[in-house]
Amino acid sequence: MEIITDGSTLLLSGDFDVRSTMEVRNAIYDHLEGHDSDVVVDLTDVTTIDMTALKVLAVATRQASRSGQHLMLRGCGPAVRRMLHLSRLIRVVEVERARASA
Q1: Which helix (H) or strand (E) holds 40?
Q2: CATH, residue 35
Q3: 101 inside domain
Q4: Which of 28, 45, 84, 86 lies 20 to 30 angstroms, CA to CA, from 92?
Q5: Which parts pass through the membrane (predicted)?
Q6: Which whole number is the average pLDDT over 6-30?
Q7: Is 88 among the domain residues?
Q8: Is the dihedral of CA 96, 49, 90, 41 positive or negative?
């Protein structure tokens, strides 16, 4: 898992699964503590994701909300969206709407 910080955005790439959840969790919480603005987690380059990873994102979303911040997911492909719906975590996390192509 590679994590790149670009302003208020965390760009994730690689496998986001049980092996990388602690690393991503720490990066998100460090980012939330270091910024007063909303935080975006970009999943565009994530190749695989599991339920443990989605739960980390859901808990981070709630933690951000408690501290008056906002966490949004960007670049969620069909597989990620499907898992969010199946797990009903879509009710907890905010997913950026895909931009309409011209």
Answers
A1: strand 39-49
A2: 3.30.750.24
A3: no
A4: 45
A5: none
A6: 94
A7: yes
A8: negative
Any residues with CB less than 8 A from the CB of 33 and at least 6 apart, and which?
none
3-class DSSP state for residue 97? coil
Q: Which residues pair with 82 in a beta bridge?
A: none
45-to-1, 2, 94, 97, 100 alpha-carbon distances in Å: 10, 10, 18, 17, 20
pTM, two decimal places: 0.88
**Is 100 among the domain residues?**
no
Dihedral Cα 33, 17, 11, 46, nearest 10 deg: -160
Inter-axis angle of helices 21-34 and 51-66, nearest 10: 20
